[in-house]
Amino acid sequence: MSTPQPVRGTRDLIGEEARRHFHVIETARRVAALYGYDEWSTPIFEETGVFARGLGDTSDVVTKEMYTFTDRGGDSLTLRPEATAGVCRALVSNGLTQSLPQKIFYAGPMFRYERPQKGRYRQFHQIDIEVLGSDSPLADAEVIACGWHILQELGVAQDTVLELNTLGDKTSRDAYRAALVSYFLGHKDELSEDSIARLERNPLRVVDSKDEGDRRIVAHAPTIDGCLTEPAYAFFEKLQEHLARFGVPFRRNPRIVRGLDYYSHTAFEFVTTRLGAQGTVMGGGRYEGLVEEMGGPHTPCIGWAAGIERLSMLMAAAPPAPASVAIIPVGDAAEAAALDIAQSLRAAGIRAEMAYRGNLKRRMERANRTGARAAIILGESEIAGGLVQLKDLVSGEQAAVPVAELVRRLK
Ligand code: ATP
Ligand code: MG
Question: pTM for the complete prediction?
Answer without folding.
Answer: 0.94
